[in-house]
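S1.2 Input.
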Amino acid sequence: MANQQEVKVPVLGEGIKEVEVSFWLKEEGEAVNEGEEIVEVLSDKAVFRVSAPKTGKLGKILKKDGEKVKVGETLGIVE
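S1.3 Output.
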């Protein structure tokens, strides 16, 4: 759908190719604002928080807590 936008793992630094989903700060169906931190991920070097790409609601969480995710992969969908 055109109104959906993927929440992706951003490029976090040189040498970081994969992160682990630490925990979601929002649940499916909850309202989110563009730029609001919605999920925390861990690399072997640091903790990062990923922000919502647009205002809407967190429609679907694709990667659960504890899952390994590569940089550029989709974590969830904001509707």
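S1.4 Remarks. The chain has a mean pLDDT of 95.
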